[in-house]
Structure formats: C-alpha cells, structure tokens
Amino acid sequence: MESNKLVAPIRKLLVANRGEIACRVIRSARDLGVRTVAVYSDADHDAPHVAQADEAVRLGPGPAASSYLDLSRVMEAVARTGADALHPGYGFLAENPALADACTEAGVTFVGPPRTAIALMGDKVQAKRRMIDAGVPTVPGHMGDGDDVAALIEHGESVGFPLLVKAVAGGGGRGMRVVRSLAELAEAIERARSEAANAFGRAEVFLERLVEGARHVEIQVFGDRHGTVIHLGERECSVQRRHQKVIEEAPSPVVSESLRATMGEAAVAAARAIEYVGAGTVEFLLGADDEFYFLEMNTRLQVEHPVTEEVTGLDLVQLQIRVAEGEPLPLTQADVELRGHAIEARIYAEDPYADFAPQLGRVVAWRPPAGAGVRVDHGLRAGQTISPHYDAMVAKVIAYGPTRALAQRRLIAAVEDCVLLGVGSNRSFLLELLRSEDFTQGRITTDAVDRQLAESPPPRPLPSEQAWALAAVARANLDVRPPETPADALPWRSTGAARFAVTLRVHDDERTLAVVHEGAGRFVVEGVAAEPVGIELVAHDEHGITFEHEGIRRTVAWVRSDDGVAIDEAGVTSHFVEPRAGSAQEDEAGGDRVLAPIGGRVVAVLVKAGDMVERGQPLVLVEAMKMEHRVPASRDGEVDRVAVAVDDQVTAQQLLAELVVLPE
Question: Which letter does DSSP use for residue 577 in this model?
Fold first, then answer.
C-alpha cells in the first residue's frame, strides 16, 4: 500500500497526452488552480490542447513512437518546465509502468496508480490469475505462457469454439480475433500477434472462451492512499464494433440495484487485491442470466468517464489530482448516488460505408453542438489536419437527462447538430444506432453491431434533392462571380446570368444539372428530380444556408472547397465535387492499380509478382490510426508488380501494386 503521508500540493501538471483528453485534463487542472504543460508532436503543433495549456513543449516528429511514446522526451519536458506532476491521460504511455517509475525517479508526482498495479493489470494473463485468487469470476480459457502457434492450436481445441484470441498487453480491441473453427485459428493467432506487436510492442496472446450474447458492463473504481476503495456505479459499453466501443451509457439499462451492488463489490475486491490508488475501471462480461466474468482492469481514466461524471456529479480528473496529492477520498460508498442517465457517442474520422476506413485531411469546419444536457469533449479546431499517426476518434458527444429516453433524444439532436466538414465521420452511423429499436429498448449485446453489419450492411445515406440543388447553385455562382467580387465573399450574389450547366458527383452518382437564376435569391435547378427544384435563399453566412423549398424553410451547414461544396443535413454530409475532365476514363483505365486508402506503414505484403489473385483478396496490410487495414484486389488478375515493402511509409492514394486484369 502507498504511504499515507501527504504529498505536496501540485503546482504545475504536465499532461502526457494529446487531443480531447489533454484538453479535458487541462480544464479540470485549471479549475483547481494548477498550471499546466502540454506536449505535442509536429503533427499537433497547432492543436487546441497546445494553446489551452500555460506552457507547451515539442516532443518530436508526428509518429507516436518518436513523440508521445518516447519516455525520455516526455521526462525531458517535465524537467525543462519544472513540472512537479504528470497526468498520463489514456492511451500512449498511460498504462506503461516505466512512466510511473520515471516519475518516481525524477521526484515527480504521478497522477495514476502504483506501478505494481499497472504492471500486473497490463498483463492480462497475470491479471486473470490474480482475480481468480481474489475470488472474482473469470472467463474459462488458456493462459498462454508463451506457447507457440502449435501449442495454442492444441489448447484451442480444449477451450472449445467459438473462442477469442487476445493480446496479453494492451486493449481497445487491438490484437483480438474471434475464431469459430479450428481451421481459422492459426491465421487468427498470427494476425493477433502482428497487430499486438505493432500496437503494444508485445506479441504474446492467450485464448479465452467467447461468451456470446453477453453485454460489456464496467465498474468505475476509485482508491486513495489511505486504504479506501469505492465504486461509482457501472457503465454499459455493449455497443461495439470490432471490440471497440462506440456508444456508452450510465447506468446500464439492465443492471438492477442488487446486481450493481454485487458487481461493485467484485470490482472493489479486484482493486483491493492489487492495492489500487486513483481512478480505474474493472470490465466485466454480463450474461443474460446475470452471471458476470472479469475481462480486464484498465489502470487509468477511461474514454467513457464523462457519463459517470454526469450521473454522479463528480469531476473524476479533479479527484485524481486530489488523491495524487495525498488527500483522502471526499466521499464514502454510502455517499455515491446515481441520478438520471447519460449517454456518450464517439465521433470517429472514418467512413462507415467503406468498411470504416479512416478519413484523413483538413478539418474545414468544426462546430460542436450545444444545448440543455449536452457536453462535448474534443480537441479539434477548423483548419486542423487529421493525421494517420493517431487514433481515429476526434470527439465525444455526451447527453444527460433525468430519464434514459430524454438523454437519448438529446444525444440524437446533438449528433445531428454537430458540424464536421472536410473529413468524413461516422455521425450518420451513430444516428442509425441511436435511433434503432434495439438500442431504444436496451437490447444491444457486444456482438450485435458486427452481426448486423455482416448480415445487412447499411447503405450509404444519399443527399436530398435540396442538397443537390443547393450544391449546384453554389457552384454555378462561384464560377460566374464578377471580377470585382472579393475572393472570400459568399457565392450567392446576383450576377444577372440566366442559366448555367453544372456537373457534380457524390461518390458514384454523377449528374449534370441546369441552374436557372430567376433573381432576388430565387433559383430553379433542373436535372435533380423529375420536376425542377425551386430554391429561395433567405440567409447565408460561414455557418449555414437558410433556404425555402416548397414553402418550408430549413438551414443546413455548408463549406466551400477548391473542387466543390460540402453540405451537411442533420448528420448526413455530402461532398459534391466537379469531376476533372477525363476522370471517368482515368478511373476505368486505373482499375488495375491498387492504391493505399490511407497513409500509414506497410506491415505486410501478402503477394508477389506473378501471383494470381481474386477480387477482394487482401494484397497488403497498412497500419494506420492504431489499426491494420487490408487493401484488397478490386478485380481478378495477376500481380504484375508490388510497389512497396514491409515498413515502407505510404501516403493516401500511393501505388501499392499493379495487376494484369483477367478478361471477364
């Protein structure tokens, strides 16, 4: 147990993280009167967390390994700024015991648990053994012990199928594979090992029985240096895709008072078994029969901690700082009361309708929503570039209400009102989930989203007739502005022109439209629908366009780009572009060129020149945003050449391989 001796009050706190969590920690530290230091990579030199801190220190180049994961550079920043404490946030070095050791050696207060707890819980096999000793229920499986592939396959047969291959280190669904038959096991082990090694620096894996139809329910625990450990209730985290959480809520819609008490006692027992101090999360699988099993313990603040804050009224970051200073927890278990309901949705820069491929580029417009019960944790600003070096999550939208139904309604409205233009996002996918009957009734289990996606992938939302018409009007007027018009002026000025032809494309839908300007802000657009679409512009600025169509007035968000215009309609963003001359022919001719969908590092080349491949067969694995992305062949053919090698850094749309296409 840590000493009960009080630590000196923290004066200056270095936040060893980035993005929304760095902004979150800085905000709470400032409320306590603590000065803050931000660290940043070259990719984040203009990020909001850098501006919000009192001081900032450059760590190094964009790749995390050369910046945020470089322990020596982080501790050098501590020394240079005279920071007397360090908060690790989550991710990066947050669960690396070497960081806690380095803080101890430097005489710096570590705002986190003891290094022994981090080390033990960071090894899932050792953690599971400790939980068994502590009487905490665990999932049956095989611990691994460094077995080779052949030994793991043998043990897999005894564990039974379906099962999970899981990385010993790390979390967040990385290094994890579902296996339903013996024939799949060898490849799953190799892929899990590769992904774990890339993400966590350790390739060891173990096997665990897959508990199907289960829910993911986690308990927030808190311990102080004086031996007190309490829990702050549960969070429901069952809405997941590929084992990564998408939507979280507190409390769980299926956990009763008695079950909450039982699970809470188990979580406190788990924390006591490792002499835990600070904020931590004990994750459980909850079966339909109310039986629950220990999954892992995260020795840090969780991404989803805001929902617990909303229903308890506590600031968990401030509690972390006060406990790190040696103060006792200011409340007992009896003081903990859950009031109302909170739901959080994670906004990712990814395309849900292209296998969730990460979306990179410059954020042209970012306007977080506001309103009663709405909170947004983010580290974004307009003009910022979404980098391939870090996780694809860019913001969290949280809604609170006295009832779950009201929290759900508020969150749906907030996600609709959120404006993120310039890069793709998962907002429309989140809205589908939040509106679904299964979510409304609280019936979603951990495998539900992946199963639904496999059985019936959702179609890409299409822009409305009004959106097509507005985009055409915007492009037509942009093209015919009078010479004296300022370059930054809005495109809606009357030019006296009567009719313009505009060709626009959204994904695979290309249309040539005719725009007729009738004067006084009135336009008619032909070619969108069977009948011409009439649009009357009422008001417009950099935030939105207000228009009337068929007697109904609406406002949509919009932004101009060099090649078109992006329009957002209640969570559905469409980027209308003007195709380049000859682009259709280029696409047809370039069908045998395999291009990188995202910038990143090549972690595997699965084919060589002369290999025959089938459409959909993976050719190259590219690691970006902490995930491996398979790049498949778009057609049947023969590999003519491979243009990259393992460990090459590639940019989006860079040539990876060329195929000789087989005649159809």
Answer: E
Are 230 and 221 in contact, with CB atoms under 8 Å apart? yes
224, 308, 351, 443, 573 from 312: Cα distances, Å: 18, 6, 34, 24, 35
Q: Which amino acid is at 264?
A: G
**Tokens of residue 605, six digits:** 């080349």
Q: How far is Cα of residue 72 from the mean position of the Cα atoms in its chain?
A: 27
**What beta strand segments (E) does 16-138 contain?**
35-41, 55-60, 85-87, 109-110
Side chain identity, residue 389: H
- Residue 343 C-beta-side C-alpha neighbours within 13 Å: 28
The span from the first CA to the last CA of the chain, in angstroms, equals: 70
User: What Å distances lie between residue 29 and 12, 90, 581, CA to CA?
Assistant: 9, 16, 54
Q: Measure the CA angle with vertex 454, ends 419 and 510; round to 5°.
A: 50
Residues in Cβ contact with 331 at an 8 Å cutoff, skipping those fewer than 6 apart: 230, 314
In tens, the pLDDT along 48-75 reads 999 999 999 999 999 999 999 999 999 9
pLDDT tens-digit readout, 504-537: 999 889 999 999 988 888 899 999 988 999 999 8
Q: What is the bridge-based pairing of β-strands 85-87 and 12-15?
A: parallel
Residue 565 backbone dihedrals phi, psi, to 5 degrees:
-145, 140
Q: Rounded to whole angstroms, how far apart are CA atoms 664 and 655? A: 24
Helix extents (H) in 235-357: 257-273, 305-312, 316-324
Alpha-carbon distance of 161 to 142, in angstroms, equals 13
What pLDDT does residue 210 have? Answer: 87
Half-sphere exposure of 405 (CA within 13 A, CB side): 2
